[in-house]
């Protein structure tokens, strides 16, 4: 079984009830954090996970809303572990430059803490792996695969497929429908996909906000991706506009026009247990 928790279901639009994009995936005794939007560690704390517990941080892309609190993850990991415990960050090309820039920005803080604490003798240890496709993780029965997605002009962007005990979960990140995401998602037990309400966004009288239609999947498009790939459960997140209480059925109805499987959506900390479906 793979446990998926939607830590943050928000977007760049600041919402008092929804943290920025982040998903927690737990499998085989390992804890993977997918993206690091605003408030990620506060939401993780609510389910008993701290920065020191993260096995690896997986970044789908480098849009600001998905890495807003990468600084917090790096710093908190550093000061709450008492033996050298590198933070592994797996992301698309460009990730190393972002991490280096964060560490440069943290230089004053790093010097303060090294100067104050006798047991802190070196800066945060962050190991970055830049990937675009293939198998990127294989440990204790958990395998993680990566494939390109389409969020242009943001590129490269990637999605992750986590497999454990016969179960599989794909985390699409921000993407429009594309063949590589279809292939990554093929036969998966669950697909976590960011979505926008195209019908509502089109009504916004501001071109900059309507521009998001160019490179995000609508609810219907995400559902169609799930249907094409033969996915068992579609888990929606990153709601634009924010999902309001009482509107859940309307979002599910849009998904149902393209997908006849289970549709999961909800508030931050919504949890889904993903189990392998019976063969055939």
Automatic annotation (TrEMBL):
Record EC number: 3.1.26.11
Annotated SUPFAM superfamilies: Metallo-hydrolase/oxidoreductase
Family matches, as InterPro entries: AtsA-like_MBL-fold (IPR044094), Metallo-B-lactamas (IPR001279), RibonucZ/Hydroxyglut_hydro (IPR036866)
Protein name, as recorded: Ribonuclease Z
Gene3D superfamilies to which the protein is assigned, alphabetical: Ribonuclease Z/Hydroxyacylglutathione hydrolase-like
PANTHER family: ZINC PHOSPHODIESTERASE ELAC PROTEIN 1
Keywords associated with the record: Endonuclease, Hydrolase, Nuclease, tRNA processing
Species name: Mycolicibacterium hodleri
Domain Metallo-beta-lactamase, first and last residues per copy: 19-216
Gene Ontology terms, MF aspect: 3'-tRNA processing endoribonuclease activity
Domain of life: Bacteria
Keyword Amino-acid biosynthesis: no
């Amino acid at each position: 079984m793979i446990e998926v928790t939607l830590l943050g279901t928000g977007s760049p639009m600041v919402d008092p009830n929804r943290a920025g994009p982040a998903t927690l995936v737990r499998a085989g005794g390992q804890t993977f954090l997918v993206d690091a939007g605003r408030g990620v560690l506060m939401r993780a704390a609510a389910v008993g996970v701290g920065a020191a517990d993260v096995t690896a941080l997986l970044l789908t892309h480098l849009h600001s809303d998905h890495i807003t609190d990468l600084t917090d993850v790096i710093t908190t990991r550093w000061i709450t572990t008492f033996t050298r415990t590198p933070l592994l960050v797996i992301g698309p090309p460009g990730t190393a430059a972002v991490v280096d820039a964060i560490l440069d920005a943290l230089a004053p803080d790093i010097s303060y803490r090294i100067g104050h604490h006798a047991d802190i003798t070196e800066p945060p240890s962050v190991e970055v792996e830049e990937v675009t496709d293939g198998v990127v993780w294989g440990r204790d029965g958990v395998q993680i695969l990566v494939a390109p997605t389409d969020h242009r002009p943001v590129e490269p962007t990637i999605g992750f497929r986590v497999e454990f005990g016969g179960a599989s979960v794909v985390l699409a990140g921000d993407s429009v429908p594309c063949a590589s995401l279809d292939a990554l998602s093929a036969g998966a037990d669950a697909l976590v996909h960011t979505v926008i309400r195209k019908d509502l966004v089109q009504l916004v009288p501001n071109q900059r906000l309507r521009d998001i239609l160019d490179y995000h999947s609508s609810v219907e498009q995400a559902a169609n991706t799930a249907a094409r790939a033969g996915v068992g459960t579609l888990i929606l997140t990153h709601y634009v506009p924010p999902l309001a209480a009482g509107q859940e059925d309307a979002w599910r109805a849009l998904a149902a026009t393209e997908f006849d499987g289970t549709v999961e959506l909800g508030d931050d900390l919504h949890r889904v247990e993903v189990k392998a479906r019976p063969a055939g």
